[in-house]
Predict the structure.
Amino acid sequence: MEEQEYLAELVRRTSARTILEIGFNAGLSSQALLAAAPDIRVVSFDLGDHAYVHQAKEYVDRRFPGRHELILGDSRTTLPRYAARADRPLFDLAFVDGGHEVEVARADLRNARALCRPGAHVVIDDLTPWRPWGVGPTAAWREAIADGLIVQEEVLVDGVLVDEPSEPGDRVWAWGRFL
Ligand SMILES: C[S@@+](CC[C@H](N)C(=O)[O-])C[C@H]1O[C@@H](n2cnc3c(N)ncnc32)[C@H](O)[C@@H]1O
């Protein structure tokens, strides 16, 4: 199963309706999440360094009017600032796919947890420590489990359920729950 298909299926399995996404990029996962059910709302965070982020946002707004918010800036700053907003929802599901440095992934998991309801679902991408960009997310995810912040539910390597991430594999992601 591809990751976007997995996200949409997870939303249906869990009945998640309010979704936090860290790392919007070209908006492909946002679209998959929003398309999963008509009453889903997504708030995405992204640095906004790529010009195409703005075109992607316009496209998402045309396709899913009033259901998506994009907050630009470094997630280490924007998530805590967003948490202080009185009108913020408590999220049912977080998809962590932003900065891949361990410090950023660690902060994103902790800040996402603070924005989610207890027991909310969390998906992290790139648990591929055999690739340079997978080292940080893997370390941050393992640390969050060891610290009792998250319990892992499923891991998929190239769309196949496994017990733990293992080489070889191009796309590895995990689903867990915030404790
Ligand atoms: C892999 S892409 C996200 C892909 C997207 N989740 C999808 O599946 O369609 C990673 C994104 O994280 C963003 N990013 C990297 N570091 C960040 C940070 N410190 N704060 C916010 N966003 C960051 C990048 O700008 C990039 O768009």
User: Anything to note?
Assistant: The first helix runs from residue 3 to 14. The chain has a mean pLDDT of 96. The two ends are 27 Å apart (CA to CA).
